[in-house]
Amino acid sequence: MAKQSQNFICQACGAAHSKWSGRCDACGAWNTIVEEQPLSSGPAAKSLGTKRGKGMALTDLAREEAPPPRSSSGIDELDRVLGGGLVPSSAVLVGGDPGIGKSTLLLQAAASFARAGTSCIYVSGEEASAQIRMRAQRLGLGDAPVRLATETNLRNILTTLEAEKPDLAIIDSIQTMWADNVDSSPGSVSQVRAAAHELTTFAKRNGIAVILVGHVTKEGQIAGPRVIEHMVDTVLYFEGERGHQFRILRAVKNRFGPADEIGVFEMTGAGLAQVSNPSALFLGDRDEPQAGAAVFAGIEGSRPVLCEFQALVAPTPHSQPRRSTVGWDGGRLAMILAVLEARCAIPFSGLDVYLNVAGGLRVREPAADLAVAAALLSAREDVALPPHSVVFGEISLSGALRPAGQTENRLKEAAKLGFSTAIAPSQSKALAGEDMALRHYPDLASLVGDIFGA
Ligand code: TYD
Ligand code: MG
What we know:
By secondary structure, this protein is of the alpha/beta class. It has helices spanning 58-63, 76-82, 102-115, 129-138, 154-164, 189-205, 278-283, 330-344, 369-381, 407-416, 444-452, and strands at 8-10, 16-17, 33-35, 91-96, 120-124, 147-150, 168-172, 209-215, 234-239, 246-254, 262-268, 271-274, 293-300, 303-315, 323-326, 351-357, 389-391, 394-395, 401-402, 421-425, 437-441. It folds into three domains: 1-36; 70-276, Rossmann fold; 281-452, Ribosomal Protein S5, domain 2. The radius of gyration is 26 Å and the shape is globular. Bound molecules: thymidine-5'-diphosphate and magnesium ion. Magnesium ion (MG) binds at residues 102-103, 126, 172.
């Protein structure tokens, strides 16, 4: 039987299907499947004999010349997320919602790289050169030695790169790029993949680093950046709540550095400004301890970041109480509520629960469990936590508390910001610094008894 062709491609995840359907089985997205022309397959792989494609010893590699050093962008928060600067000939993807500030960040980075001696070309497929020039002037970058190109045809871009031989090419955005040998519309999975593949292989061969911008899309009419994540060395996502001026650049994959590192920026009238002390920013002005608030001593990547969890617990008029969370995983909230109910006999049925991380940070660390529980308990009992206290620790389903990594870093940062008490799992005590009082508990029930007298 002839092989069934799989021409229906999900624009969100890239999965191929043999027929159209309303929902993609692979990722669950609705209305994202579009018919695309397949790429013509190349000749079948043939053996080239024993000489070609020979392996080499790892020790031989060590004798080859050392790789050129990383180049600094001159923006510390960006360098940190890249793992200590841009690796020559590497490919970086910067994803994010439309309007979040990707073009602003990369134009600032381009100018900064160029001023630091990394020759840089900024290729825009979205804006006219006059628009880019206006933006650059507004950002105070009018005189930066960056080269600009407005182009969407891949062939022309490769020709430009070949002629100019920059150290770095920024492509804004990959969804507007279009390869004339691929028979589907710009922004489709085939086009985005082909363009990303061509650009990254060309760049690697020619010693050019590339930064690709990718819009995260909800409608599914254009392919999301996820379909090219595997082709690049480093994947960064630029995130933030629309209403907040804070933006977080997060490394989710990095072949040349730690993942999970974050860079914090503030969107101002004159572009993105670095925030070198994020803890102070996320905590804002706090004076009186309030019921329902718990300060979490967290770690983002390699650095400690303090932030505040805020909870509101109120009787519900509905049969199904609401569980609403911003900045924290909803499933993990449900788990903590269940542990409080089953292990500490504190029910939340009949109560609406709202949980929010102040400042627009998204917390993913399990070590925040205890801060979430403390905020919920404090809101429910209407009792504030001890003044100047921070909370951290993981909660297991049995109700036992597990120590979090990097306790010392968390305590140091908290002490630096004027906190004097840490509420944490028992095993943390060995590491406590002198200037922090540690209130440690083996399980959630003993914490509840001690702090809330319940
Ligand atoms: P932009 O970089 O165009 O977003 P993206 O490339 O991710 O789509 O940013 C657009 C938003 O940023 C826009 O709503 C205006 C705002 N902005 C500022 O607040 N200050 C500035 O200096 C600039 C250039 C943009
Ligand atoms: Mg843009």
